[in-house]
């Protein structure tokens, strides 16, 4: 970074297409995803407590930040590790920078944002106990996604599979299924080599 500060050419080639920061960064309570590839670093400056970053010539463009990522990463790491994922996301989003906490499955299930979007769909198990599963992540007004039925129960279609795929008669399939249950039926399908 000293080279850039003194207007000396830095002899480092950027291989491939890379714009930075577009990265998962650790935070106090997990990880956060930051995508400040356009003018984002300039917008993040106040949130990062580093108002001088945008003036550094070596960080002026996304390609420069990628080329100098080895210098920028520890600076950003120092910032991200002093905040939670929610704090970083709020600071970045207030400045128009795409950013979000990287949730665990449990955190995602409890997220107010996920709940507000109606992403989790409620289903009932065969014992009538309800549970939630992810729905379709994309919303389209002309063709809204709907769940028509729950996933089949274990063994629910075994008789039909034995008939349609193996050519068994209904009585053969039902007698095997009734006598031995799902395990015997699944074994019969595997051993038939259809």
From TrEMBL:
InterPro entries: CoA-transferase_III_domain, CoA-Trfase_fam_III, CoA-Trfase_III_dom3_sf, CoA-Trfase_III_dom_1_sf. One of its GO terms (molecular function) is CoA-transferase activity. Belongs to the CoA-transferase III family. It comes from Geodia barretti (Barrett's horny sponge). Keywords: Transferase. This is Formyl-CoA:oxalate CoA-transferase. It comes from the Eukaryota.
């Amino acid at each position: 970074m000293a080279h850039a500060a003194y207007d000396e050419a830095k002899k480092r080639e950027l291989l491939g297409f890379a714009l930075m920061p577009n990265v998962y960064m650790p935070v106090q309570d997990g990880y956060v995803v930051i995508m400040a590839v356009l003018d984002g670093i300039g917008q993040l400056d106040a949130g990062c407590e580093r108002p001088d970053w945008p003036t550094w010539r070596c960080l002026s463009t996304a390609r420069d930040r990628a080329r100098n990522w080895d210098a920028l990463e520890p600076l950003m790491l120092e910032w991200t590790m002093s905040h939670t994922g929610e704090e970083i996301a709020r600071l970045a989003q207030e400045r128009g920078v795409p950013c979000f906490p990287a949730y665990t499955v449990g955190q995602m299930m409890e997220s107010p944002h996920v709940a507000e979007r109606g992403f989790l769909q409620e289903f009932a198990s065969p014992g009538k106990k309800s549970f939630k599963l992810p729905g379709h992540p994309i919303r389209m007004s002309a063709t809204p996604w709907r769940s028509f039925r729950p996933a089949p129960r274990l063994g629910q279609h075994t008789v039909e599979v034995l008939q349609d795929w193996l050519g068994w008669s209904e009585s053969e399939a039902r007698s095997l299924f009734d006598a031995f249950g799902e395990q015997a039926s699944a074994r019969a399908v595997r051993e038939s080599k259809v």
